[in-house]
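Troubleshooting log. The previous structure file for this entry was overwritten by mistake, so regenerating from the original sequence record. Sequence copied from the archived sheet and checked twice against the printout by T.R.
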Amino acid sequence: MRRLPLTIAGLLVTVVSAAPQEFDREASARDYVQFLVLQLDQWTKTFPHDYNAALVAPPVDAAKLPESARTGAGDLRQSITRLSALGNARDVLTNADFRAELTKAIATATQVNQAMGAQRFPAPLQSDWDQVRANLNNLARIYKVDTLAVLEPPASGRDTKRAAAAPPPPGALVGYIVDQQCATRGKGMWVNADCVARCIREGDKVVLVTEEGKVYQIANPNKIETDTYGQKVTIVGKTSDNTITVASLQM
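Regenerated output below.
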């Protein structure tokens, strides 16, 4: 019987330690900022080389670009490198140096963004830029600084004909097939098919996100094939509030 108080005390310690911990929003936000910076660091490692190579090859005409645009990719890489070093700070959410460097990065990126919108760069490079721009804009929204405009590159004659020949049917929704979590993280994540597939395999829901960032739940996810993950699609179906029941899907 003498062991009873100790046993009860032990049970109380076990119960208290097993209690669910309160969600730490600040730590989650800090982790998200560091995740965005890590992705920016990865995506900009080869971007200056590829960008500069495109400047000297048709159809890009570098002579029509200002000097700040021609050197912008290298300058942006240097700024992202500095952001990576500052991003490890525990006070990164309120760190004045990080915010100032982010502002500089976006100012430099503006020059590259305008060049990418004015000239027809190679499609893989344009896709990489979409990811870089999306992550910079996500950081800009967190730190309440100006975002980069989404500028579409000039279309080739073939692309123009294709767009004119295939308008979406009335009532259709056009967007990207992604997982619920990546739907809130910008276009760079919407087109990351491997990440989308992994998140869905791990139990996240499949959704449709439009170019404007509006998310639609999919009532019958069995209609979504894996080869559409991360792809831009047109869905025809019945829409109710923020949910669509898929009747047909076209890539």
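The beta strands are 173-179, 206-209, 215-218, 232-240, 243-250. Archived copy saved in two places this time.
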